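It is worth pausing here to work through a concrete case rather than discussing structure prediction in the abstract. The textbook approach is simple: state the sequence, then state the predicted structure, then interpret. We follow exactly that order.
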Amino acid sequence: MKLTDLFQAGRFVVTGEVAPPKGTDVAEMLAQARLLEGWVDAVNVTDNQSAVMRLGSLAAAAKLAAAGMTPVYQLTCRDRNRLALQSDLLAAAVLGIENVLLLTGDFVNKGDHPDAKPVYDLDSVQLIDCARGLVEGRDMAGNALTGSPGFCIGAVVSPGTEPAEGQVIKLAKKVRAGASFIQTQAVYDAAELARFLALVRDYGIEVPVMAGLVMLKSAAMARYMNTNVPGVKVPEDIIGELEATPKAQLEEACVRQTARLIGELRPLVSGIHLMPLGWTRLVPEVLRQAGLEPEVR
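Step two, the predicted structure:
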């Protein structure tokens, strides 16, 4: 199932996220994904997120597909040259994966192998263009393929990064290169997102946008994100609410805040991408409180 089919059908699309394990035991990853099953339309599989070495996202996405779920295969430019990137994309298609999210990738100095050599043979725009070429039946060297994938290609944007015009210009390049849906960095301010999307429309860009939301576990986490995650701005009123919440009630506060934010963002976008970061079991209640039960959205 391609996400573009859902957008075209007028569905408000909801996706979640799981991280592959640091090792070969995929039982916990599959258990986390099962908690999302029936509540989300697809499950993103991160690719060595934060430059931390884990099981490859291709194998993890294939495991989800084999278990009957719809994966979104994330692939970054950081670790592979253009030969490996194209090869992995073709492998994903052969394994039945239809949705891909193509990203630059965090720098290696943020991860657990800071001495690793980054590749970045392609940037995210070039990788999107590469994937579109594969869909059209050719590789980056112009050689014809024997059989081609039918990907739904996604890209990312950071609405909170200044200057906003720079993000919009890069977004336009990604859409021209072949991106058919966009997922944002975590956003917590509906008014800020509305201003960004107005600028996107002013540039004549028409593409489904999914608002990303990291589920906040504490005030300390929110402040850390403000300090260390470029483009993320958690408003002080949200942080203050978390600070005033007793530790035993933080999960309840997380559910309440996330559902409220979904309600504020929903009129602006075509979908929501939830990043629960270990609190996956709370996602069904978040969606229930947000009025996004699968049978009604």
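Step three, interpretation. The chain has a mean pLDDT of 96. The domain at 3-215+271-276 is CATH 3.20.20.220 (TIM Barrel).
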